[in-house]
């Protein structure tokens, strides 16, 4: 039989222990803050404004490109723009040179992120993109670079140095690119007067979108799912209805589905403790809560959750009633959580 690989063998005593110096860590955070402050202090706001306005005026797609870490930043900024309802797409410079540049048109803007401004893949992309008629913008940090001289517009992102002790690993430069791109995106969002509802419409599957889009009527149980009973019904005759609908309660209604009150499994326990065998003679109407919290079907689902959690004590459900106090549904805390709220 063969022996275990060295990384599975018990060699803990031979491992070198590495510890993070808390003082050095704090100093690194302080240094990064200093470098970022340098960026904020020296950024040319007239350039930033022209850049933002140019993107806002674009009638085509805002393509964003970069290589390496700048490529990851470019993807993130592009996705942020899309989430705000702005037409944008990441364009890989390598793939562009192998056919993807066919997507560019004369109405489009191509934004190229590069710390050095001398990235070979981007320099090769420039003449091809220009031939397609796209408007070219470079976003760089090194003065006198090649890319800025080939672009229709250049934005300089001031960079004191990288946080890396060798001033090599892109750490501060990528943070600056991200801050710049996302700030511009929010400025465009503001200029387009994007509402909270409009933002939510772009995130329908996320918690933000659901909290701004879903109404009570979208998440409530209704019709045969409702645990209903009449106020004259005996409590013991309604145990199946109380437990089988998964709501933890009974909705006590009149002949026209007019809401009279609610009776919960907690009410059942308290009634049993107080009346013992007398519970067999008690009706639901005698023991129900005749002043329950309710909500309308057009209210926001997130409002229902807040109402359930409100003082003096939280509840697990809300009867849904219309303007005539007629029961049309029930919304439960479990249902809201299951819906992603």
UniProtKB/TrEMBL annotation:
Name used for this protein in its record: SIS domain-containing protein
Site (Catalytically relevant): 69, 121, 162, 203
Domain SIS: 51-194
GO terms (BP aspect): carbohydrate derivative metabolic process; carbohydrate metabolic process
The CBS domain, residue ranges: 288-341
GO MF annotations in UniProt: carbohydrate derivative binding; isomerase activity
UniProt organism field: Mikania micrantha (bitter vine)
Similarity remark: Belongs to the SIS family. GutQ/KpsF subfamily.
Domain of life: Eukaryota
Pfam families to which the protein is assigned, alphabetical: CBS (PF00571), SIS (PF01380)
Gene3D superfamilies xrefs: CBS-domain, Glucose-6-phosphate isomerase like protein, domain 1
Xref: InterPro entries: CBS_dom, CBS_dom_sf, KdsD/KpsF-type, SIS_dom, SIS_dom_sf, SIS_Kpsf
Assigned keywords, A-Z: CBS domain, Repeat
